[in-house]
Write a structure and sequence with these properties.
- The protein is mostly beta strands and 309 residues long.
- It folds into two domains: 118 residues, Immunoglobulin-like (Sandwich); 149 residues, Cupredoxins -  blue copper proteins (Immunoglobulin-like).
- 9% of the residues lie in helices and 39% in strands.
- The chain contains four helices and 19 strands.
- The strands form four sheets. The chain has a six-stranded mixed β-sheet with strand order 10-9-12-17-14-15, with no helix packed on it.
Length: 309
């Protein structure tokens, strides 16, 4: 009898019907459009990039489903170009809210993060292809308000794919898709000491851990066929939405301007290599090695370490 009364009480309170729901909050996000020199390979070679906060990719923005985002874009007074911000997680007025601002100007707008997932953000100023190709892109992660909507990840990493063009002023080459390299997180073989002995970083996890990859294809032109060599994607969530789950995929195709969340679990020690399986893309820089070892760095893929600079 006591058990039945307890069960009725739990049902009445909704305890058994709902997961743990996060309360919506207001999150202030400020980014600066900065034109600066940025390294694009492990040797330290640089190009004149257009960036958010002086980094390629820009900072990771992370909020929770239902949050109100109060966004501010500041175009540095030393910029030579107008810039803007297009959040794929927002539903707004493209003309008013995503308008370009001149050097020294500030733009503000507010949106509600209605849908959980992983979304692209980028500069949308004309010509958009050049602003993206020169580095004005990043990711906004919208965590589900239901903490149980996704299996708990032991580690998380952000990977953003993009094409690198030798001459960032050559808009014709961009329109003709004449890139020199395809990169992850702004660097050629950035996480691949196999193909570049000067690479000093890679992804880490322990065998049996669930590794969650938040992947964005910034393009601006190419598709990505993302595959973990020596592994299988345990679960894939197109656009990162828990409702879109697919299981046990060898590769997943992600178009330019799109994103996905992909979970990887290795039952054994050793290495996997996350690649764009379009071999021209992989062999020009789009490879990230992930080492599964029992002595993996406990801080890797956690907290502020989900995007390795």
């Amino acid at each position: 009898m006591k058990y039945k009364q307890l069960l009725r009480g739990m049902l009445a309170s909704g305890f058994l019907l709902m997961g743990i729901q996060a309360e919506a909050k207001t999150v202030q996000v400020t980014l600066h459009a900065v034109e600066t020199d940025v390294a694009y390979d492990n040797k330290g070679s640089t190009y004149r990039a257009w960036t958010f906060d002086g980094k390629v990719p820009g900072p990771v923005v992370r909020v929770t489903e239902g949050d109100t985002v109060e966004f501010t874009l500041i175009n540095d007074k030393n910029s030579k170009n107008s810039h803007s911000m297009d959040f794929h997680a927002a539903r707004l007025d493209v003309v008013e809210d995503f308008e370009s601002i001149k050097p020294g100007e500030t733009k503000k707008y507010t949106f509600t993060a209605d849908n959980p997932g992983v979304f692209f953000y980028h500069c949308g100023s004309d010509p958009m292809i050049q602003h993206i190709a020169r580095g004005m892109y990043g990711v906004i992660i919208v965590d589900p308000k239901d903490a149980n909507a996704l299996p708990k990840a032991d580690r998380e990493y952000v990977l953003i794919q993009a094409e690198h063009y030798e001459n960032p002023d050559d808009k014709t080459a961009m329109m003709q898709n004449k890139w020199s390299n395809v990169v992850f997180n702004g660097g050629v073989f950035k996480y691949d000491p196999v193909h570049d002995s000067e690479a000093t970083s890679w992804l880490q996890a322990k065998p049996g851990e669930r590794v969650r990859i938040y992947f964005v294809n910034a393009g601006p032109n190419e598709l990505s066929s993302l595959h973990p060599i020596a592994g299988i994607w345990d679960r894939v969530y197109p656009s990162g939405n828990p409702k879109n789950v697919q299981y046990a995929l060898q590769s997943y195709l992600i178009g330019a301007g799109d994103a996905a969340t992909l979970d990887l679990i290795s039952p054994v020690e050793g290495a996997n290599a996350i690649v764009d399986h379009s071999m021209r893309h992989a062999h020009s820089g789009a490879i990230a090695v992930i080492m599964f070892t029992n002595d993996a760095d406990p801080e890797a893929g956690r907290g502020e370490n989900i995007l390795i600079r």
